[in-house]
Amino acid sequence: MTCPNLGESLKPPKTLIESGAIIHHLSKKGKFFLNVSSFTTFLLALYFHECYDNGQIIKKFKGLAQMNHWGEKRYHSMDYDLKTIYGEKVYKITLNGGMTCPNRDGTVGKGGCIFCSSKGSGDFAGNARASISEQIACGKEALQRKRPVHSYIAYFQAFTNTYAPVPYLKKLYREAIRDPEVRILSIATRPDCLGEDVLVLLDKINQIKPVWIELGLQTIHSETASYIRRGYDLTAFEDAVRHLRSLGITVIVHMILYLPGESRKDMLETLDYLNHMDIQGIKLQLLHVLKDTVLASEYRNHPFHIPDMMEYIQFLGVCIARLNPRITIHRLTGDGPSELLIAPLWAGNKRTVLNTLHRYLKEQDIWQGKEYYD
Ligand code: SF4
Question: Which residues of 258-283 are buried (b: 16+ CB within 10 A; e: fewer)?
């Protein structure tokens, strides 16, 4: 497209990077000096880009500017945010509050979501028989053996961590935030387990230390949601986000990539939907087939498509480019224990996956929000 106000001879260079390169080139040659006319030309170039590419280039410029503010990464990472706020890396200690899940105990369903492990997707969480203080002390000791650490996130990961009477939850949460080095309380739960009394408690805790609530949405598609036996509908998710945000609580959403039966279009529809929700973080999780799950029997009886590493990385590139740059990325791979992992086995080497992804983003000049449009 072109701008109706521009004649062919006035058509500007196609990208801002090109106009930046022209200025850089002139400056290197000693011919560039910042006078009113060159500055005006640059401003006009910005304006013309918007006309020339119907708004897309100016959005790319915005994305580029944001990319430069995320440290060495091309995406808005949780580590980046935490280092900015706390001045150092903040480490997660995974805790087990000894709860169960309404999708397992028969309240909503039996057996749970089809991908969920017997430990309620909390395979790295602490020992439920130990107190929260003991689990935190143990987590700290393990982390400090490798490096000096001073800041932690107390992360209730296993099962549904708001699914218990409020006095019990209050005791757990208070014990977790009592430790001065615990900066944040992070709670994984379901949208249908955030009743009014729980919200009142979360609000109180959030006034003492920041509370993050993680919601396992996985997909917006009702057919997939019923296949994975998620056990709640999209309205429950939207209500939960609205209630949490009205209290100023940070919301992080889990989305699973490559669920059986979902096309790239389906997955991108979920991502686009989340782009426009009032959420602060996202976990992009590659589907893991774990031993002793319903998904494992499905996979054995009706094998479904599991991407190889390059396919996954290329698709992650598409997701990252399309993701609203304001949303913090908390995860880009899977997080299952290697002894339970049936497929994809390459996902067990998280370091290789992330290094390959970072190289790929650089080679392809991809950054978060590059293809995001309001
Ligand atoms: S809601 Fe969470 S804990 Fe419950 S079955 Fe599903 S994945 Fe497991």
Answer: bbbebeeeebeebbebbbebebbbbb
DSSP code of residue 203: H
Rounded distance between C-alpha atoms, residue 262 and residue 81, angstroms? 31
244/251 Cα distance (integer angstroms): 7
With 50 as the cut, is the pLDDT of residue 55 above it?
Answer: no
Structure tokens at 37: 């006319």
Give, in order, the Cα–Cα distances in Å from 355 to each of 313, 319, 367.
10, 17, 15
H or E segment and range at residue 252:
strand 250-257
Does residue 5 carry a pLDDT above 90? no
Ligand 1: which residues within 6 Å by Cβ?
Answer: 101, 103-104, 112-113, 116, 120-121, 159-160, 190, 216
Atom of ligand 1 nearest to the CA of 112: 5
Query: Is residue 203 within 8 Å of residue 243, measured between CB atoms?
Result: no
How much is the pLDDT for 7?
32
Q: Which domains does the chain have, with CATH numbers?
A: 8-67 (no CATH), 78-363 (3.20.20.70)
Task: State in Å: Cα 264 to ligand 1 middle.
Answer: 24
Give the 3-state secondary structure of residue 47: helix
The two tokens of residue 79 are 């580590």
Residues 155 and 135: their CA atoms lie apart, in Å, by 11
CB within 8 A of 69, min separation 6: which ones?
none
Predicted TM-score of the model (pTM): 0.83
Residue 176 contacts residue 154 (beta carbons within 8 Å): yes
